[in-house]
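Postdoc handover notes: sequence design on the structure in folder B. Input tokens:
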């Protein structure tokens, strides 16, 4: 090695592609992990389904529902399902909660099209559902792709009927778009205005029943099908949460199968990492907590969002079992706000700042801050916090990188980090870099998925 090269090696950053750094053992474990992650995605296309499947996985590993006042010992595994839409899980540590908990917080809601409370109508002898989009979507991406309907219908008598329509070979649903032959004027509109929200109407049927001359015969046919399957009438839509999601199962991408395409990587890719890591640890020193939150995509509001007191209540209860003050626990805790970041995309290089963007296959992307413009809406972790995480990840042989979401002033984004930090919990953002984030089908790299799992495990065991 030349003397100059040596001097450079000593002082310069040597960020390398993860495939030049990953060991054989990790490489083998990565494939198995990603198969399980794909299963998780295919079982959970809504926050309700993710919450339910997460609980099933946890129970299979010995987790039990937490009951207030329960006596807790080191190694005990408990969870709370918050209204079936978010989950909080803990493995009790050998140290007192006064010394803090090590937390990962991810979200399991994803952008989608929700049905409006009065969704069903017939127009020109075709039946449609009106939708109201949830989260930040690019509306033009949701037309002309097969959709499934998932969610729940709550009846006045207290029963809650889970809904899954369009799975496997079942008929699916679709939103149509103009043909290019007649799309000239539409094509001149800006991308964001070409498909107005009120045109995101899902085609759900076209075959009339009954006698010619009657009105709404297609709508009646749809309602009869729904009644047959679920016993519901039109007014029951009022107390339903039905979500149209892409009818696509996860799949490997590339000749080398190094990537995964799926709906909902944001943020189930971090949610599963935090969950699986928690299921894989036995007796941590600090109590390890995994939060799978709802409502992040609309601001973490509401009773199942990260701003809800449900999390404080859960932690308060755990602290009570040890006679510890919640505020003392929080001030000594650490949280990895585990949420995806934007991966550098050479097709759209103009919105990225190459030196500070997350790159595919460079591992978990840590973000000291997120936000928009002058870091507005960001938690902006302290340098000491970043140093702590650097040490933990390096000691555990985790491949990671630093990341900003795009160029300064090109846009921005937020996570649950600020809401954890507001609780006086030391917090840092970190997650998997994603290509085409918030699209009906998003892409991530297997190496980055697996490294995020390793990172969560390292945090719990720190
Ligand atoms: Mn997210
Ligand atoms: Mn998002």
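Designed sequence:
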């Amino acid at each position: 090695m030349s003397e100059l090269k040596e001097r450079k090696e000593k002082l310069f950053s040597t960020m390398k592609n993860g495939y030049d750094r990953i060991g054989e053992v990790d490489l083998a474990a990565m494939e198995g992990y990603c198969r399980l992650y794909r299963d998780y995605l295919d079982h959970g296309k809504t926050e309700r389904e993710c919450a339910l499947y997460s609980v099933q996985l946890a129970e299979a590993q010995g987790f039990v529902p937490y009951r207030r006042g329960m006596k807790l010992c080191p190694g005990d595994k408990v969870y709370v399902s918050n209204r079936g839409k978010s989950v909080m899980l803990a493995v009790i540590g050998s140290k007192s909660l006064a010394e803090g908990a090590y937390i990962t917080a991810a979200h399991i809601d994803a952008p989608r099209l929700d049905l409006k409370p009065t969704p069903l109508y017939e127009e020109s002898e075709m039946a449609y559902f009106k939708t109201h989009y949830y989260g930040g979507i690019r509306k033009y991406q949701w037309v002309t792709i097969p959709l499934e309907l998932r969610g729940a219908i709550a009846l006045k008598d207290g029963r809650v009927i889970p809904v899954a329509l369009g799975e496997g070979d079942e008929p699916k649903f679709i939103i149509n778009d103009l043909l290019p032959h007649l799309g000239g004027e539409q094509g001149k509109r800006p991308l964001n205005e070409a498909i107005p929200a009120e045109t995101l109407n899902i085609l759900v049927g076209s075959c009339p029943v009954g006698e010619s001359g009657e009105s709404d015969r297609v709508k009646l046919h749809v309602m009869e099908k729904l009644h047959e399957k679920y016993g519901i009438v039109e007014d029951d839509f009022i107390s339903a949460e039905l979500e149209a999601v892409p009818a696509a199962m996860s799949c490997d991408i590339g000749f080398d199968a190094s990537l995964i395409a799926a709906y909902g990587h944001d943020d189930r890719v971090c949610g599963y990492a935090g969950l699986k890591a928690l299921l894989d640890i036995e007796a941590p020193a600090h109590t390890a907590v995994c939060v799978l939150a709802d409502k992040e995509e609309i601001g973490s509001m509401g009773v199942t969002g990260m701003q809800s007191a449900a999390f404080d209540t859960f932690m308060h209860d755990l602290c009570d079992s040890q006679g510890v003050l919640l505020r003392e626990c929080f001030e000594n805790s650490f949280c990895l706000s585990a949420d995806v970041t934007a991966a550098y995309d050479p097709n759209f290089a103009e919105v990225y700042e190459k030196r500070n963007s997350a790159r595919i296959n460079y591992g978990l992307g840590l973000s000291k801050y997120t936000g928009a413009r002058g870091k507005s809406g960001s938690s902006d972790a302290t340098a000491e916090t970043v140093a702590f995480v650097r040490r933990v990840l390096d000691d555990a042989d985790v491949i990671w990188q630093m990341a900003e979401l795009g160029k300064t002033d090109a846009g921005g984004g937020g996570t649950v980090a600020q809401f954890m930090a507001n609780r006086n919990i030391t917090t840092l953002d970190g997650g998997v870099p994603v290509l085409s984030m918030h699209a009906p089908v998003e892409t991530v790299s297997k190496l980055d998925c697996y490294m995020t799992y390793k990172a969560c495990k390292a945090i719990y065991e720190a």
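Context for whoever picks this up: The pocket of manganese (II) ion (ligand 2) is lined by residues 266, 297, 438 (CB under 6 Å). Don't rerun without checking with the PI first.
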